[in-house]
Design brief:
Layout lengths: L1 H18 L4 H12 L4 H7 L6 H40 L18 H15 L3 E2 L5 E3 H4 L24 E3 L5 H9 L6 E10 L10 E11 L4 H16 L5 E8 L2 E10 L16 E10 L1 H6 L8 E7 L2 H8 L12 H4 L4 H4 L1
Parallel strand pairs: 1-4
Antiparallel strand pairs: 2-3, 4-5, 5-9, 6-7, 7-8, 8-9
Bound molecules: 3,4-dihydroxyphenylalanine.
3,4-dihydroxyphenylalanine binds next to strand 8 and strand 9.
């Protein structure tokens, strides 16, 4: 009888205290209070030695019953706590499926990238390699090794962004010629194009501080001006249409001798004369020439054995013509409203 009372008291106490238990930590503390080293139930079992032998068995049974009950209740509470925790977590991570989905924006290929890819395809089909060079290059590669030593007056034609005495933002892709020849340690023939960004201190509707060039270099035995002419004619016709005519005018570049400037029949009027070509029927598109012996020699090619040609159009103009862009600066401001007009579906 007495034992029954005791058991009930213990269980009541446990149930009362369980009401205040909110977390697993609380529960662990409570468990220790009952079953820990100094716990209520543990202390009861210590009394075993005072119990007369003939009652020991029964006392053991009583102890065991209490232990089982206490453990059951604690385990039940533990399950409750876990269920609550899971519910709280699920509620806080609930996804509202009634929210409209975020629209994913579709990009389009930049008009310049498209022109570059078209030209790369053409030149690769003629056996050229496509190379790239750094946009920050040395004064040596950009000028000196292209036969423009320090103090050369032609340096003034390119208002350059110098970073320090030796490094600058490349003002043209021509240093790719030097880099390619120098990297080719076996001095084998070369056929490369190098598309890339170049930088100059210019800023108006037809000149940007940044624009794109597409350098070409061929070095080998018996390469002549005739090869250059044939190549550039193909280039112009492919990019601007079969009817395009090409005109070569003598010019001067320090890195080529002879040098020429190349005009094509006006993209807009086809050669009749209009405002774009200033009534001449022609538009200048690039500089080119036969590689100067000094340039070959400085990059380790023997000019007695090798000759070559090079060309360097600015290709923004082609994009402007092809896509009707009137201000070159729009090409570089990355305004999505401008760029999305050139989605492939719309223009081809
Ligand atoms: N680098 C020249 C410029 O930016 C263009 C050029 C002219 C490149 C003649 C060439 C060349 O490769 O042969 O004005």
């Amino acid at each position: 009888m007495e034992k029954n009372m005791e058991r009930e008291n213990i269980i009541k106490k446990l149930e009362n205290e369980l009401k205040n238990v909110k977390t697993k930590n609380d529960l662990a503390t409570l468990k220790a209070e009952f079953l820990g080293k100094n716990g209520i139930v543990t202390n009861l079992s210590l009394k075993m030695k005072e119990i007369p032998n003939e009652e020991k068995k029964e006392y053991g049974k009583f102890l065991n019953e209490i232990k089982v009950l206490v453990l059951e209740k604690i385990e039940a509470k533990n399950t409750d706590i876990e269920k609550n925790e899971l519910e709280t977590k699920l509620n806080s991570e609930k996804i509202d499926i009634t929210l409209p989905a975020r629209r994913s924006l579709k990009g389009s290929i930049h008009p310049m990238t498209r022109i570059v890819e078209e030209l790369e395809d053409l030149f690769v089909s003629m056996g050229y390699d496509v190379v790239s060079g750094p946009e920050i290059d040395t004064d040596l590669n950009c000028f000196t090794k292209l036969n423009l030593p320090a103090g050369h007056p032609a340096r003034d034609a390119q208002d350059t962004f110098y970073l320090d005495d030796d490094y600058l933002l490349r003002p043209h892709t021509s240093p790719a010629q030097v880099r390619t020849m120098e990297a080719n340690t076996l001095k084998e023939p070369i056929r490369i194009v190098c598309p890339g960004k170049v930088y100059r201190r210019d800023d108006d509707a037809t000149h940007s501080h940044q624009f794109m060039q597409f350098e070409g270099l061929v070095v080998g035995e018996n390469i002549s001006l005739a090869d250059l002419k044939g190549t550039l004619e193909l280039f112009a016709k492919k990019l601007l249409g079969e009817k395009t005519k090409v005109r070569f005018r003598p010019s001067y570049f320090p890195f080529t001798e002879p040098s020429c400037e190349v005009d094509v029949t006006c993209f807009k009027c086809g050669g009749k004369g209009c405002s774009l070509c200033k009534q001449t029927g022609w538009i200048e598109v690039l500089g080119a020439g036969v590689v100067h012996p000094n340039v070959l020699r400085m990059s380790g090619y023997d000019p007695e054995k090798y000759t070559g040609f090079a060309f360097g159009p600015g290709i923004d103009r082609f994009a402007m013509f092809k896509y009707g862009i009137t201000d070159i600066r729009q090409i570089y401001t990355n305004d999505i409203r401008f760029l999305e007009q050139f989605d492939r579906k719309d223009v081809e």
